[in-house]
């Protein structure tokens, strides 16, 4: 079993499997995750050298991929001794790392192959990547990001789609009203999931809502999105299908004929990807994923806080941002 060094963290394997006999009412819990993390920029924004590193509330640099727990903590967890299993009050909500705020175009992502996995802008053929504006949309149409401590295993073939994972944390499309900030850690409840097939790889897209959204109580499953945000799911399919077309790529395909699967299906997918992540960081086998962490102390890749600090210090100094190319604002009209 993997153990986290940070206080009050969940016992990971048990968090995947344990079913809670009861849940505290929301009013009696105070979620801690959103208070616990900060970010530090390095390099010049809008350049290939830009990196966004993460710190926990102890001031330690950490990996957003490996050190931020999938399951958020509450004030109730803090009082539980570190080596005891925490009651899983939060089995249906998850931490999310926001990579791309809604309405923005820069394709930012957790750098899975770099130490401490900072957020960086994706580069293709030497150029920074920006998603195209496809009429009537502007940039990403949700807050887009990933669930920490999950991994879509490229060696695991999905039974339904016969496609293997894309070697990344599982993606999240957060549909709440707030435009989040890059690097923000929020707590979301999943409502469903869409099985995108991207160039032959399985690339699940979890549909979720921030639990702090004013209307969060209205949303408990995928059909609630159809009811309260009509057209949003259809726009999501259209966006994900077409966003690469302006770059000369074919349309993406979907498993299950483009059908959104429900909340229970989504939670099962999340649990599976969490178990793949546990296997990833608990093995000494080399992969192209950098598994360096500060708090996963039973992992062979755990490092000291001093080593983590040296990684960040070696990154380029923060500088003024480079201008965004004017073509990023172009609107693309696709033939139906």
From TrEMBL:
<keyword id="KW-0378">Hydrolase</keyword>
<keyword id="KW-0460">Magnesium</keyword>
<keyword id="KW-0479">Metal-binding</keyword>
<dbReference type="Pfam" id="PF00719">
    <property type="entry name" value="Pyrophosphatase"/>
</dbReference>
<comment type="similarity">
    <text>Belongs to the PPase family.</text>
</comment>
<dbReference type="GO" id="GO:0004427">
    <property type="term" value="F:inorganic diphosphate phosphatase activity"/>
</dbReference>
<dbReference type="InterPro" id="IPR036649">
    <property type="entry name" value="Pyrophosphatase_sf"/>
</dbReference>
<dbReference type="GO" id="GO:0005737">
    <property type="term" value="C:cytoplasm"/>
</dbReference>
<dbReference type="GO" id="GO:0000287">
    <property type="term" value="F:magnesium ion binding"/>
</dbReference>
<comment type="subunit">
    <text>Homodimer.</text>
</comment>
<keyword id="KW-0007">Acetylation</keyword>
<protein>
    <recommendedName>
        <fullName>inorganic diphosphatase</fullName>
        <ecNumber>3.6.1.1</ecNumber>
    </recommendedName>
</protein>
<dbReference type="InterPro" id="IPR008162">
    <property type="entry name" value="Pyrophosphatase"/>
</dbReference>
<dbReference type="GO" id="GO:0006796">
    <property type="term" value="P:phosphate-containing compound metabolic process"/>
</dbReference>
